[in-house]
Specification:
This protein has about 220 residues and is mostly helical. It folds into 2 domains: about 120 residues, no CATH class; about 70 residues, Arc Repressor Mutant, subunit A (Orthogonal Bundle). It has 10 helices and no strands. The longest helix has 21 residues. The termini are far apart.
């Protein structure tokens, strides 16, 4: 039982509680005891440890996901874990990815891909330091909101519509939103009052909104 507990705690912090993991490990220990054949002459722990590990892995497969990978990888992971248990009992050591791949008839790249999804059980904390104490954390490396995305999207959507406007309307849009002129400055430039510029802008906006909702034929 102490061995089973140590194996369970080795998998702690991956999405399942330690107490649940210990119960799974105990069940695996019982299963190993029932299947153990002393006439083979193998040490009981050499037979039991892979069995307990296999039960722990099945528990994660069934209920430990925090981020679910594609179903193909979930199904392949079950085969990889089963092969690891069988090979560990046969070889007396942990098998290599290539040995696992050969055992189940897949490529070593597939096995390595399965091994890489271990973080789906317990994603790394954003507060986790990346190096020495006091160094940057994962959160420090995350990107920030870039207002340029919204601007780029607006340009992409509105560009074709603005190009369909008349020359004066396009000039008003350019002076207001690309040069940052005030309505009074625009009025002085095109020879109308500030109030008229305001009305012209309202009309232009209304036309653009209408075309956004019901775009013209290409």
């Amino acid at each position: 039982m102490p061995v089973a507990r140590r194996l369970a705690r080795h998998y702690a912090g991956r999405g399942l509680s330690v107490s649940d993991l210990e119960q799974v490990a105990y069940l695996g220990l019982v299963a190993a005891a029932r299947r153990y054949d002393p006439d083979r002459g193998d040490d009981f722990l050499a037979f039991a440890v892979p069995t307990v590990k296999g039960e722990l892995r099945k528990a994660f497969r069934d209920g430990g996901w925090m981020v679910r990978p594609p179903r193909r990888l979930q199904e392949l992971q079950a085969r990889v874990w089963s092969a690891e248990t069988e090979l560990e009992q046969a070889l007396g050591r942990s098998p290599t990815p290539q040995e696992v791949a050969d055992h189940i008839g897949v490529s070593s790249d597939d096995v390595l891909e399965v091994l890489s999804i271990d973080g789906c059980f317990a994603p790394s904390s954003l507060d986790l330091p990346l190096g020495e104490e006091g160094s940057a954390t994962l959160a420090d490396r995350q990107g920030e909101f870039d207002a340029g995305f919204a601007s780029s999207e607006a340009r992409t959507v509105l560009g074709p519509l603005v190009r369909r406007l008349g020359k004066r309307d396009r000039t008003i849009i350019e002076l207001r939103f690309f040069r940052g002129w005030t309505q009074k400055q625009i009025g002085d430039e095109i020879g109308v009052t500030q109030m008229q510029v305001s009305r012209l802008l309202s009309r232009i906006f209304a036309e653009l909104r209408t075309q956004l909702v019901d775009p013209p034929a290409a």
